[in-house]
Amino acid sequence: MGDRDWRPFVYGGLASIVAEFGTFPIDTTKTRLQIQGQKSDPRHVELRYTGMVDCFVKTSQQEGVKALYCGIWPAVLRQATYGTIKFGTYYSLKKWFANRRGGGGGGESVTTDTLCAALAGGLSSAIANPTDVLKVRMQVGDEKRHLVRCFMEMYRVEGVRGLWRGVGPTSQRAALIAAVELPVYDGCKRRLTPTLGDSPVNHLASSALASLGSAVASTPLDVIRTRLMNQRKVKNDSSYSQVKIYKGTVDCLVQTIRNEGFLALYKGFVPTWLRMGPWNIIFFVTYEQLKIMY
């Protein structure tokens, strides 16, 4: 396998953490916009925010600027696992298939890159799902305790299934994002290299183009998985029976469209796109620089 095969995993994890810190407040506004307006959940029926900017301002004024970073530590923990596994697996698999096909970039194909990216995205997201659940609940404002205590309480009250709530749409979304984002980035980078070279300008332009496609493709699944993660199903506790919850991905999809219309699936699209753009730019520029430095 070679002595450099571990580096995509390390670079992917470090670059993901840097990108997460830089864009987390946008992710918080996206999550809150996606949660509001659920007619089947009495906790979030009210439309508190009119858009990303309004959510950003109201959250800062009512709860403090610190609230925009509520959930950052499970998010960082998620990126340390998700980012490490996702990008390391993708680039390792891609290199392996390229070598099998004849070596070098000439052995790459769009189909192979897409399959490698989807596998890496789905697998890494499923493993990191508990950190994603906690991140969502802290961003919404339902969890204020210490990271470890939150995990212990979630496990005590909701069991193992609570830690993997929403894992289906989460993995599907991650696989979809990766299948669009990574091959598009690599393809754009190859096409722009003759003009721009393997430079930060090339990395910036390629990552910006990859972000738009992944945002359009993934937002509906992101809305569904956010709502599934935010709901609670307490073990052996009838006091929660009055809260109607979604039965699964399909039920959440149907109820959302029926009660709020098709466009509800694109709630939070603007912050999703605005976050994916800077996130990918920070990530890929950091990743490429790490490759050069080490």
From TrEMBL:
This one is known as Mitochondrial carrier protein
What membrane topology was assigned to this protein in its record?
A: Multi-pass membrane protein
Task: Return the similarity comment.
Answer: Belongs to the mitochondrial carrier (TC 2.A.29) family.
Q: Which SUPFAM superfamilies match?
A: Mitochondrial carrier (SSF103506)
Q: Which UniProt keywords apply?
A: Membrane, Mitochondrion, Mitochondrion inner membrane, Repeat, Transmembrane, Transmembrane helix, Transport
Write out the ranges of the repeats annotated as Solcar.
7-96, 108-191, 198-293
Q: Which Pfam family, giving just one, matches this sequence? A: Mito_carr
For whether the record's keyword set contains GTP-binding, the answer is: no
Which GO terms of the cellular component aspect does the record hold? mitochondrial inner membrane
Give the GO biological process terms: transmembrane transport
Family matches, as PROSITE patterns? SOLCAR
* Localization in the cell: Mitochondrion inner membrane
Record-linked InterPro entries: MCP, MCP_dom_sf, MCP_transmembrane, Mito_Metabolite_Transporter
Q: Which PANTHER family match?
A: MITOCHONDRIAL DICARBOXYLATE CARRIER-RELATED
